[in-house]
Specification:
The chain is globular and about 60 Å long. It has a five-stranded parallel beta sheet, with helices on both faces. A three-stranded antiparallel beta sheet has the order 1-2-3, with no helix packed on it. The protein has helices at 45-48, 103-109, 125-134, 159-167, 173-176, 192-197, 224-249, 265-276, 278-281, 288-308, 341-353, 355-361, and strands spanning 13-15, 24-26, 29-31, 50-54, 61-65, 113-121, 140-144, 179-187, 205-207, 220-222, 253-256, 312-314. By secondary structure, the chain is an alpha/beta fold. It has one domain: SGNH hydrolase (Rossmann fold).
Length: 370
């Protein structure tokens, strides 16, 4: 049945006879109905928005989904079904200006989902996710922060609020509010040693590091303090996010070390060529001993940060390393940075066997995969 719409003025409405008997009268002014609107092929996007259940001034926080008819077409941008352990990284749809609200307020909007082991990270989570694709385990849930989706609210946001929305990607409290873990596993960051040291610098350098081999001859010598200062500048966002996990959830947190670099330059060039092109793959590479020192320096900074924030730092699986501490060939991925599915299986094993996990989950930590 089509509904007629009309334009009216505020006033008392009383019926009146008009041409065809199909008019109304408002304070003596007769009005005619507007032509009926044609039916929509699918529900308006507005009906798919979440409606307000918490009053916050003139604008509300949208939280409770509006029920649509059972035969409504799905939204065109709806996500396809995903594996249970691959958690959606979409933010709760409230405006960015509310992202600073305390945890109990945010969780009061939508009940959090209980996840025994919540893994939060970036590209290094892919190895674990692929391993769980092969051997599912309902105890795990993974959030890839690279896939964070900030709700579209730009029509109501000022430029300042828009910038705040983008900062949520680094401080994703509204995303964390969707889950209630027992143990939190951080796989945040971990690629800075590649970004800073994979390719040879225009002025080849080496640096001093306690407990590491001496500086290679014929290279500019940098001090440990100089290189550490550069690393600390580049990893500070990751450090903030790791500490935020501990402060926000108040649960035991494990931080999983990224895999070490590979010493095989042929593997690096072979895997770079398909994605970065032959020109990049032919660029001179930093010698493996220097790349290893940069990896060790990165882990030293992370280890100290974890200790200062009551977070347990977990070393990479010993069997995935060769005699010199580099990533062994059977555990390399299709790029020079990450571990593969087999490496991810070792990480899952180490998480489940870790004393922190066993203490938090109890006997279920040692159960066979559900």
């Amino acid at each position: 049945m089509l509904k007629a719409s009309c334009v009216i003025r505020i006033g008392s409405i009383r019926p009146t006879a008009g041409p065809g008997g199909n008019t109304s009268n408002i304070n003596g002014m007769a009005i005619m109905p507007m032509p009926a609107s044609p039916p929509l092929d699918r529900p308006s996007r507005l009906t798919a928005r979440r409606k307000t259940t918490m009053a916050t001034g003139s604008r509300g926080i949208r939280s409770t989904p509006h029920e649509e008819p059972a035969d409504a077409d799905p939204e065109p941008d709806a996500e396809p079904p995903r594996a249970p352990h691959r958690l959606s990284a979409a933010m709760l749809p409230w405006p960015a200006r509310y992202h600073h609200l305390p945890r109990f307020v945010l969780r009061g909007l939508v009940p959090p989902r209980k996840v025994p082991i919540l893994i939060v990270g970036m590209s290094h989570t892919n190895a674990v996710a692929h391993a769980l694709d092969h051997t599912p385990d309902r105890r795990f849930g993974i959030i890839n922060l690279r896939q964070v989706k900030v709700p579209e609210d730009t029509a109501e946001m000022t430029a300042k609020e828009t910038r705040a929305s983008l900062r949520i990607r680094r401080r994703p409290i509204p995303l964390f509010a969707r889950f209630a873990p027992t143990v939190v596993v951080s796989m945040v960051g971990g690629a800075n040693h590649h970004m800073l040291g994979l390719f040879e610098h225009a002025e080849p350098f080496d640096f001093e590091m306690p407990g590491a081999p001496d500086v290679l001859p014929g290279r500019r010598r940098l001090t440990y303090a100089e290189v550490r200062a550069v690393f600390e500048f580049h990893v500070h966002n990751s450090l903030d996010t790791i500490a935020l996990l501990r402060r926000y959830y108040g649960k035991p947190v494990l931080h999983i070390s990224a895999p070490p670099p590979t010493s095989d330059e042929a593997h690096i060039r072979r895997t770079l060529a398909p994605t970065r092109g032959d020109a990049v793959a032919r660029q001179p590479l930093t010698p493996a001993p220097i790349r290893m020192k940069m990896y060790l320096l990165q882990n030293q900074i992370l280890r100290e940060h974890c200790a200062a924030n009551d977070i347990t730092f977990v070393e990479p699986p010993a069997e995935a390393l060769d005699d010199d501490g580099f990533l062994a060939e059977p555990y390399r991925s299709f790029d020079p940075v990450h571990g593969n599915v087999t490496y991810g299986q070792l990480v899952i094993r180490d998480i489940l066997r870790h004393p922190v996990t066993v203490a938090a989950l109890g006997p279920s930590a040692n159960e066979a995969t559900p």
